[in-house]
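Q: Structure tokens for this one, please.
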Amino acid sequence: MKRSERLWLAFEKFAIFFSFIVVFILVMLALVLAYSTWQVLPTLQALRDEIACPLISDVDGLVADLESVVITKTIPISQTIPVQFDLPIEKNLTVELTQDVDLRRPATMVLPAGGGQINGTVYMVLPRGQDLPVHMKMTVPVSQTLPVEFDVLVAIPLRETELGLVIDRLEELLAPYLDLLDKTLKCSAP
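A: Here is the predicted structure, written as tokens:
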């Protein structure tokens, strides 16, 4: 993974975590302010009914939405892979001579009816262009590096990361306020 990609991924993680912290602090401040308003100014029923209930319910809905968020990213892969192995080759081939081939071989000729034998040398020329059947059997060592380039689509459910714990904690923190809203204002969470 390239350094710029690692930095970008680290920045993404930091940005997500930082945004959770900021949202959490703002939600807590809003909840404390709303609760104080209920205690100190009970005459502001309209404020509670029209702002507090929808706000807390919406924050709860956002936390619920965070559970289903899936981070998707296409990661380009660009590497070279070493490849080393022995390649056995065994095959019947027909080859064509590229030049005349002189052959000189010792030969023994047996005469019929017990006439004996003659030892000698046979001379012959295989002409250029002559096709010859050949059986090839060999092992070829292969040692190369191959470039590999492709894109990988990654999908990470937010619930399955470390941020899943943050979501759980936010739900725990919101639960008493949702109960309070339900009891005092008769509004329910989405």
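A few notes: The radius of gyration is 42 Å. Helices lie at 3-40, 45-67, 163-184.
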